[in-house]
Amino acid sequence: MDNREVARILNAMADMLEIKGDNPFRIRAYRRAAQNIEGLAEDVESLIARETLEEIPGIGKDLAAKIHEIATTGTFQEYEKLKAQVPSGVVELLTIPGVGPKTAQLFYKRKGIDSVARLEAAARAGELRGLPGIKAKTEENILRGIEMLKRASGRMPLGLALPLAQEITTRLRQVKGVTRIECAGSVRRMKETVGDIDILAVSAAPGKVMDAFIALPLVREVLAHGETKSSVMTRQGIQVDVLVVDPKAFGAAWLYFTGSKAHNIHLRDMAKKKGLKISEYGVFAERTGKRIAGKEEEEIYGTLGLPYIAPELREDTGEIEAALTGQLPDLITADDIRGDLHVHSTWSDGAHTIKEVVEAARRRGYRYIAITDHSKGLGIVRGLAAEDLTRQREEIDRLNQGLRDFRILAGIEVNIRADGTLDLPDGVLAKLDCVIASVHSAFRQDQQTMTERIVRAVGNPHVHVLGHPTGRLLGEREPYDLDFDRLLEAARANGVAMEINASPYRLDLNDAHARLAKEAGVPLVINTDTHTLAEFDHIHLGVATARRAWIEKKDVLNTLPLKQLLKRLAR
Ligand code: DGT
Ligand code: CA
Ligand code: CA
Ligand code: ZN
């Protein structure tokens, strides 16, 4: 048992005593002991062996006995007894920034609050104010603390995990002896959030890879350091596992560690029926134990009579059945995207002029973009009124005259008001090439109101695209309460496209919703909602979401050549 773990238990004991309202001196004694043990240069275990625990400042006979007990049994009786008296959910309240043992005790004793979820509900309902020392502002702070906690303790958004994974593979690829290095796990499947990052390597000198890995500057803590497998915690707070495997079994290991688990299990069951055994080491004949495949993934799928299945599809949601009947989708790729239809400029809250965004878009090889600044009604950002749009149009026309093989579309991101009307008149919208309608306010309407609101907006004959259709913010805000099927029906009937907003904090539509949209025959667009030039790069996150949704090039409007796109928008 290491010092940190001992200190953690002593601190937990102090928390428990504080929640119970115990003697402050006793609480203080535990905290001090914890602090001193954490600061020790030597292992507690060796102090125990030499019987010198009591030489640590603040540790008397009594505490020394308890530390001894922790080191040998992993806990101590007195702590276990207290733990049984205080619900674990109450202790968990302490992890919320701004909630200490005293307030946790108050909430528990006076309101019976014994979980973070209950505290959140009570704060939302305004039920905490009026308790000693608790004001409306305190409730607000608690809610903000809970949001932060959810973000920090939860899974990492793909948009943050992916560059991190790429940085690690890029650096380790340069280590001598490395002949192959690839991401596996949820990162390779491009899942919207990532629990931990899994990386596989082939190397003649595995030890060198391990040493280089744990010495990377982004490592905060080494969790395990073995000859072929190591794990670290990064400074960004995500775990990374690196595993060196036999080149003969690389494909098998890559398939296994890419997952998903459900996909793997389905493959394994299929293999069994064919008298094969499939594992991270290869495919083997069950009877003879002879290895049949292992080097490449294609080979392994081949032994099961399957074509290669793209990682984004490997969730066991029908991909294996589709593969068996030759009906896998021909997935869209980033190269299919010909332009971005949701871009902001300095005319509203974007950081760059139209000219600058156009140059960046051309450098990416795009053939068109739509400038879609905010409309005025929003209030929080500088939005455009009808007369601003006229002037913006003049600028766009002027720029277009100087452009070859590229077109700037004049657009707007118009707000959908609480009642479903748009905050620019139809006559103004009619003059624009591309109208995105988005909800930016009154998020908490009940399902019927919200559904009718958006259905009404989609029914406006000038709307081309519904922007970030469900309003969710990854790890921060749930989607609106919405009858999604009804919305799809309205979008299909009106020929309105649904956006896959590629912002790493949105990814809205998500994979599941986008798949429903495709199945309902609703066209899609994949946009970045760029406010600064670097955000154009997010397009690959949007494309990944589309791929996870089985979407093909033909399902997405901004894969069309300009002429066809304009025809489609003009309807
Ligand atoms: P994450 O990290 O929670 O975002 O999700 P994954 O999919 O990366 O899961 P992780 O890191 O626990 O494991 C990586 C892959 O290893 C997983 O996708 C499939 C494979 N795997 C892990 N545990 C099992 C298991 O018990 N059975 C099978 N068949 N595969 C497993
Ligand atoms: Ca993982
Ligand atoms: Ca893992
Ligand atoms: Zn926007």
Contiguous helical run count: 24
CATH top-level class of the largest domain: Alpha Beta
Q: What is the residue-averaged pLDDT? A: 93
Helicity level: 40-55%
Structural class: alpha/beta
What's the gyration radius in Å?
Answer: 29 Å
Distinct compounds present: 2'-deoxyguanosine-5'-triphosphate, calcium ion, zinc ion
Beta-strand proportion: 5-15%
What is the H level of CATH, i.e. the homologous superfamily of the largest domain?
A: Metal-dependent hydrolases
Low-confidence stretches: none
The CA-CA distance between the termini, in Å, is 70 Å
Describe it.
Strand 15 (465-466), helix 21 (484-494) and strand 16 form a beta-alpha-beta unit. This protein folds into five domains: 1-83, DNA polymerase, domain 1; 87-153, Orthogonal Bundle (DNA polymerase, domain 1), CATH 1.10.150.20; 156-244, Beta Polymerase, domain 2, CATH 3.30.460.10; 258-324, DNA polymerase, thumb domain (Beta Polymerase, domain 3), CATH 3.30.210; 334-570, Alpha-Beta Barrel (TIM Barrel). The strands form four sheets. It has a seven-stranded parallel sheet with strand order 11-12-13-14-15-16-17, covered by helices on one side. The longest helix has 18 residues, at 3-20. 41% of the residues are buried. With 571 residues, the protein is an alpha/beta fold. It is globular and about 85 Å long. The structure holds 2'-deoxyguanosine-5'-triphosphate, calcium ion (2 copies) and zinc ion (ZN). The site of one calcium ion has 5 residues, from helix 11 and strand 4.
